[in-house]
Structure formats: C-alpha cells, structure tokens
Amino acid sequence: MSTNFRAANPDASALDGTGMKVAIVCGRFNDLITNRLLDGALEALSGLGVADDDRLVAWVPGAFEIPLASKTLALTGRYDAVLALGAVIRGDTAHFDFVAGECARGIQDAQLETGVPIVFGVLTTENVDQAMERSSDTHNVGAEGARTAVEMADLLHRFRRGD
Ligand code: INI
Known about the structure:
163 residues, alpha/beta, Rossmann fold, four-stranded parallel sheet, 4 strands, 18% strand, globular
C-alpha cells in the first residue's frame, strides 16, 4: 500500500465522539429487534464518548417513516449525525421490497440533500432468526451504525475545517 499521500483522517480507527450530537430514528415495527439495535447503538455511542444528553431517540411507526423523520432532524442543524434503525423482515410482508427499498433510497437521498450523515442501520432480512443474529451482543448492526455515525461526522467536520 502506498504511503505517499496526506490522509484526511489518519487515525480513523481511533474514533472519538466527545462533544458530538447524534439523533437516532428508530422504527417501532418489529420492536423486539429494533430495541436490540437501539441498545447496541446507545452502548456503542457511550463507549465512543457521546454524552447521554447529546443523544436523542425518536420513534417512528416503521421503516417507511424513517427517511422523513431523519431528514427533518438533519435539517435542524442540531446533530452531527443521524442513525436510522429499523427491521424489515421479508417473512412478514408482501411489500418488503417497497418498504426496504424506499427506506434505503430515502435515507440516501436525505443525507445527500442535507449534507448530514444519515447511517443506514436498518436490517433487511429473510426471517426473524437472521434479524436476531444481526442484533445480538456479538454482531449488532445498531452498534456498527453508531461507529459509522461518529466516523462520518468526524470525517465531514475535517473536510469542512479544511484539515
Ligand atoms: N415496517 C418495518 O419497519 N418493518 C417491516 O417489516 C414492515 N412490514 O413488514 O410491513 C413495516 N411496515 C410498516 C411500514 O414501515 C409503515 O410504517 C407503514 O406502511 C405505514 O406507512
């Protein structure tokens, strides 16, 4: 690997969320799963130094509602990142593809339009067992999303500061 460059974030593996404000938008549908994602996310944010008072949790009915709530929070300018958590399980619905696809598209559109990182911590699985596996203590997409939120917030701050 070449070392002949200047890295924007040379210590990207040493994440520090101290002073960052993070909003979490969490789908209530399949809340057995989304509560596990939320627990993983909150624990990870604490471990990264994000203060309890700097975390907002907003519940929405389901994954389809996540993009609008996330975009609205991003537009307030109060958050360094938004973390979207949800669980779309194919076994539950014939409109899986619409709900999952629109959620993903809406989140991507919202982060590109607002310039605020909005992390896709939404499980899209075939069944509940897969969703349980990906929201466990050993593999938790909520915790992974928390790390991504802090990393992306830090990276964009560096770009804007001109580091
Ligand atoms: N919402 C989910 O978050 N996960 C699902 O698996 C799901 N299923 O199966 O339908 C789901 N549907 C609700 C949807 O997100 C909206 O809340 C609803 O359509 C109202 O707009």
